[in-house]
Automatic annotation (TrEMBL):
Keyword Transcription regulation: yes
Entry keyword Oxidoreductase: no
Organism: Pseudomonas graminis
All residue ranges annotated as the HTH araC/xylS-type domain in the record: 214-312
Swiss-Prot/TrEMBL keywords: Transcription, Transcription regulation
An MF annotation (GO) of this entry: sequence-specific DNA binding
Annotated protein name in UniProt: HTH-type transcriptional activator RhaS
């Protein structure tokens, strides 16, 4: 399913060349800042703990991973992100927001050493959104039926300006403790005021169903190794079983059981790659009782059985 079928904020088809003069200048500065703070291929956490700089010097294969709530902005390049079989594309014209933790796959479409993919990721804390809403009061956040916990929206010069000011603080570390929280709040404010801001708004409002889905997601992240009974999870977040299924799939594009399966398989992959566990041990560690079922589901998600997948991953490092 295409993004345009999911939300009114489908990416603008206009080329980067049609950016305004101001935004062209801002994008050039953003690219230079990211290039400077990400001097090599990879993801780099900055001294502003929630801010990461990302650089890729070559296109990448589709890489599954669990991504926490975040704002992703690209200064150069193009990336495809898949959620439950749905494709989202973002580029310098459009930013990507994850309002909840989601198991997604990301693929860098174009990058070379001379013209690398340059992006940033700013993690979003729902607690900060809650505090901002409580302090600011009514902000005329658009209210409409909530959709996926991930969306793409057209970027504007005000958001770019705030992000650039946040990155500039890396050159004056003494200013970070005082100014970084203020700029971060401004960024959250501008996201809330965007046309899809209700998706962030709802994760912080305790009496709405979307917030309860975020509680279910958090519970699954904390207990993914355990057997899952949907009735117990629904009771945990104070929703009926049918409502939990409907709202959970609306936000994540998958059922709670499918979500749990992705968490298990990604953690098993990490255990094998980082800790050297054998496939059977990793599968057991994340909650699988059958080695054959683990291998079968692992192959379905990652495109190869565990041993072959790990060999492929290690050959690219």
């Amino acid at each position: 399913m295409s993004l345009s079928a999911l939300a009114p904020s489908a990416p603008d088809a206009r080329p980067v060349a049609e950016l305004s003069a101001q935004m062209t200048q801002q994008r050039a500065e953003l690219a230079e800042l990211i290039r400077r703070h990400a001097p090599a291929d990879g993801s780099f956490q900055t001294v502003i703990k929630s801010l990461f700089m990302v650089r890729h010097d070559r296109p990448s294969q589709s890489v599954p991973g669990l991504v926490q709530p975040a704002l992703c902005i690209m200064a150069q390049g193009r990336k495809d992100v898949t959620l439950g079989g749905e494709l989202y594309t973002y580029d310098p014209l459009n930013y990507l927001v994850l309002s909840v933790a989601l198991p997604i796959s990301g693929k860098v479409i174009y990058a070379t050493p001379e013209e690398p993919h340059l992006a940033l990721r700013l993690e979003i804390d729902p607690v900060e959104i809650n505090a901002l809403i409580a302090e600011a009061g009514p902000m005329s956040v658009p209210t409409r039926h909530s959709g996926r916990g991930m969306y793409v929206e057209r970027i504007d010069s005000q958001l770019l300006d705030a992000v650039i000011r946040l990155i500039r603080l890396l050159d004056t570390p003494k200013d970070i403790p005082m100014l970084a929280p203020l700029i971060n709040r401004e960024i959250l404010y501008r996201l809330l005021r965007g046309s899809e801001g209700h998706r962030l708004y709802e994760i912080a409002i305790s009496n709405c169903q979307t917030h309860r889905v975020t509680q279910a997601i958090k519970w699954l992240n904390d207990h993914f190794q355990e057997p899952l009974r949907i009735e117990d999870l629904a009771k945990e977040v104070n929703l009926s079983v049918s409502t939990l299924h409907h709202r959970f799939k609306s936000v994540t594009a998958m059922s709670p059981l499918q979500y749990q399966k992705q968490l298990r398989l990604q953690e098993a992959r990490r255990l094998m790659l980082a800790d050297g566990l054998e496939a059977s041990a990793a599968g057991y560690r994340v909650g699988y009782e059958s080695a054959s079922q683990f291998s079968r589901e692992y192959s379905r998600l990652f495109g190869a059985p565990p041993l072959r997948d790990l060999a492929r991953l290690r050959s690219t490092v």
